[in-house]
Amino acid sequence: MTAKEAFTLEVKENGRVFLPVAFRQSMGIHSGDRLIVRVAEKGKAELVTAGHAIASTRGMFAHLAMNGESLADELIEERRQEAAQE
Questions:
Q1: Are 49 and 35 in contact, with CB atoms under 8 Å apart?
Q2: 48/43 Cα distance (integer angstroms)
Q3: Which of 12, 9, 41 is nearest to 23 (CA)?
Q4: β-sheet bridge partners, residue 35
Q5: How would DSSP label each residue in 8-42?
Q6: How confident is the model at residue 81 (pLDDT cuts 50, 70, 90)?
Q7: CA distance 53 to 34
Q8: How far apart are CA 53 and CA 22, in angstroms?
């Protein structure tokens, strides 16, 4: 699928939408995968895979990690030290 390719989707009963095979293949979407639909602006929406959304979110906060250290590991270590002092 190229960026200029477009697909027409029809909303069925209960809001169900069928994604064409060519679209699913080009996006790497498989049965059971989760997709996120974002409202971009009135009349427009953006459909992304959950994996893409997670990667984008991680990228937004990557600058906060210093020297490749894990912020989660740092927080856990701080909590352990606090617990040991109690």
A1: yes
A2: 17
A3: 9
A4: 49
A5: ---B-GGG-BPPPHHHHHHHT--TT--EEEEEEET
A6: very high
A7: 10
A8: 21
- pTM, full prediction: 0.53
Tens-place pLDDT, residues 61-78? 666 666 667 778 888 999
Stronger pLDDT, 20 or 61, i.e. the higher one = 20
Backbone dihedral region for residue 49 (phi beyond 0: left; psi -120 to 50: alpha; all else: beta): beta
Q: Which residues contact 27 (CB under 8 A, 6 or more apart)?
A: 1, 49
The DSSP string of 59-70 is: HHHGGGS-TT--
Assess contact for 53 and 38: CB atoms under 8 A.
no
